[in-house]
Amino acid sequence: MKNSNRLSFLTIFPSILLLALASQGAPAPGFGPATVSLTATFQSANFQLVTLKTNHTSTTTNFNYVYKSTTTNLSVHADYILDLLTNSFNTNFPAGARLLLIGTGGNHRFAVSDGTGTNIFLDVSSVLAFASKAIVRSGVEMALFSQTGTNSTITGNDTETWSVYAAIQYDDSAHVSADGTKTVFGLGGIMSATDTRNLHSSKFGENLMLPVVGGGTIRGVNNVILNGNIHALLGGVLLIN
Asked: Distance from first CA to last CA of the chain, Å, rounded?
């Protein structure tokens, strides 16, 4: 972990490699389906007149009004997000399409893959963006470098625990949606992630949990409040030499 240049490379490498691999239809190292479990609360009735009773006396007429405001809760899962994205991009995804989270250490992005989860169909960053506002980490790397003639090998493991102030923004304002509505909402929270790497095989995995709160507009419905969790188990091969 003392080699700050190498660790900086590890942090930015997934984003660089993603750009190359996305054009080839394959996800970058550090990818997995995103599990979305959110609750959307919106106004279903706002100060709506539900009853009006009139009472007449010999001298007075009384009007009794009853108004009611109600809210509705909607479960928002990955399939719902995929449905939003099909509308925003005015497209159709392959049967069994999956919402992927790609990256590591707080440098993540969303994409849509086919049902296998290994072939990227669409990078959706222009609508659904992931931004890391602040990152802190702790961990230990134990590495052994061996040099035999012109051949070198590395063995060992690196385990990192990340805390990330993350912000997710959904904004299709720049797109012409299929139904003509707009969806613009923001989510934010503190992401916790554990990242493990085998330095010899370059295989790594990341287990992340991001509790979020936020709100905005969904398909033209304003003042939607969102809260819940986003979870992902990411894995792949990250070349570090």
From this structure: 15
Query: Please, which residues have CB within 8 angstroms of residue 163's CB and are 6 or more apart in sequence?
Result: 135, 136, 137, 190, 191, 192
Q: Can you give the pTM of this predicted structure?
A: 0.80
Q: Are 216 and 40 in contact (CB under 8 A)?
A: no
Locate the domains of the chain by residue range: 4-44+75-237
What is Dmax (Cα atoms) for the chain?
Answer: 112
Task: Label residues 203-220 b or e (16+ Cβ within 10 Å = b).
Answer: ebbbebebebebbbbbbe
* Cα gap 179→58, rounded to integer Å: 56
What does the pLDDT look like over 55-113, one tens digit per residue? Answer: 999 899 999 999 999 999 999 999 999 999 999 999 999 999 999 999 888 889 999 99
Residue 26 burial (CB count, 10 A): 14
Q: How is residue 164 written in tokens? A: 């990330």
CB-based contacts of 194, cutoff 8 Å, min separation 6:
159, 160, 161, 162, 206, 207, 208
